[in-house]
Design brief:
It is a single chain. The radius of gyration is 21 Å and the shape is globular. Helices cover 70% and strands 6% of the residues. By secondary structure, it is an alpha+beta fold. The relative contact order is 0.13. Helix 6 crosses helix 9.
Length: 332
């Protein structure tokens, strides 16, 4: 049966999204507010990863124990892994065609310089036609790429551009694309396991028991999705540290502030970015560059801007004000 025509699937999906919005708007901000600043970036990533893996393992174990392996979990894992790996393998070709990516010798020289500073092999530098943005992509078949839009190149100074490139190479250095691809399988797998238990509950003698476990699994799949989004935001902070290492705090902050103010000034372009299927790759995505100079006063004012908790906790990227504040805290 095609899921798109299955009312049970849609009821569970809507129910899960309501839970996710409730958590993002109420519970998550309170928890984050209490633990903010208590852990280093590395400790936070480690603890969050343990929480994601531990919770996922516990829910999957519960499903397997209760269902007595009535669910073909290995087939489901193979199915989800196959789909995601296929997307991972073909996405560079799609990106290159969609954005008209073109190699640039001038940009490649900057990428080579930044890569040498970070002690990694230089990816291929390409210029894409889009609003101000930059992103890292690629795989073992296509090689690694760092894309910078022509609009962003015209907006940033050399040191600001190097900071942005450092951020993107940081994603390659930390293997973030593959890391997040694999981690993102967990909430999907748990959701579908829960859905399959609920669907099979009507024809099983333990119907109510399977249905309850299935609903629990669906709820936790959305909880884990929020945790995965939180982990993604931490990886963005992690990549920012590479940009700071390359070009300094001021250049990294100015580049982020310029991008922020550009999208703040042109909301229609921001909407275009937020709806893009590749938005998780962008240096700026789903959070609130101008060619004019950015002053220290602009940056300080931006740090004080209020951030919507729901917008933040349902995004792969941390808000620019928080990224600017994080950069201030870095020590090398």
């Amino acid at each position: 049966m095609f899921l798109i025509f299955d009312p049970v699937y849609w009821i569970l999906a809507i129910f899960g999204y309501l839970i996710m919005f409730a958590l993002a708007g109420w519970v998550a901000p309170k928890v984050a507010g209490r633990v903010a600043g208590k852990f280093s970036l590395y400790t936070s990533m480690f603890l969050l990863l343990v929480l994601i893996l531990g919770t996922s393992a516990g829910i999957i174990y519960l499903i397997l124990t209760i269902s007595e392996i009535t669910v073909d979990i290995f087939g489901l894992i193979a199915f989800l892994l196959g789909i995601n790996l296929l997307i991972y393998l073909i996405s560079p070709y799609i990106i290159n065609m969609s954005y008209g990516a073109k190699k640039s010798e001038e940009l490649q020289r900057l990428v080579n310089e930044v890569s040498a500073t970070l002690g990694v092999r230089a990816p291929t530098a390409v210029v894409v036609h889009s609003p101000p943005n930059a992103f890292a992509y690629g795989n073992f078949l296509t090689g690694k790429f760092v894309a910078v839009s022509d609009a962003l190149i015209n907006v940033l100074s050399k040191d600001e551009l190097m900071a942005v490139i450092g951020h993107e190479i940081g994603h390659h250095k930390h293997k973030d694309n593959l890391f997040m691809l694999l981690l993102g399988l967990l909430p999907s797998m748990i959701f579908y396991l829960g859905y399959m238990l609920i669907r099979s509950s009507g024809s099983d003698r333990r119907g109510s028991q399977l249905a309850i476990v299935g609903i629990i699994a669906v709820v936790f799949s959305f909880v884990i999705q929020i945790l995965v989004l939180a982990f993604s935001r931490l990886r963005e902070y992690f990549a920012d540290t590479e940009g700071v290492f390359v070009a300094g705090k001021d250049a990294m902050q100015r580049s982020l502030a310029k991008i922020h103010y550009f999208y703040h000034r042109y909301p229609s372009i921001k909407a275009e970015i937020s709806e893009n299927k590749f938005r998780t790759l962008f240096i700026y995505a789903l959070v609130n560059a101008i060619a004019e100079p950015i002053t220290r006063m602009d940056i300080e004012r931006l740090k004080k801007e209020k951030v919507s908790p729901i917008q933040e906790f349902l995004s792969t990227h941390p808000p620019i004000p928080k990224r600017l504040a994080f950069i201030d805290s870095l020590r090398f």
